[in-house]
Amino acid sequence: MGSGFFITMVAKIAIITLSILGFYISLYFTFVYYQIVSPSKFLVPKICKLTENTCQMIIYSEYAKLLGLPNFIYGLAYYFAILLFAILESNGYIKTAIAIASWFVVAVGVYLVYILTRVLKVNCLLCFVSHILNFLIAILILLK
Fold it and tell me: Which GO cellular component terms, listed alphabetically, does the Swiss-Prot or TrEMBL entry include (predicted)?
């Protein structure tokens, strides 16, 4: 049990933690989008809560969908897949596919951050946190 095992274990725990957090953020956006909860009535830190107008501007914009589905629905599936990957000790082709998918998600995130800041001109802390989570997950997958 050398340092390689320790790094792999820390990466696994971090991936699990980050994927759960990402899933929660995607779930928040899903609940707000489908009007299950108000943006201000969900368990997120006060600094991260969105106002009704800001949230609607983001989640209902033309940029918030890919192939007809809201981005956060893809987020739910992505974070669940990452969680399974971390728990089930996947290697080989599955690890390669997950790594490629993760870096694709990071690339899409760069585009979405541009849209948020330059086109919509909205500073959505939860959005930024989810993009940072995606970047960290992609790096950690390489370490796992």
Answer: membrane
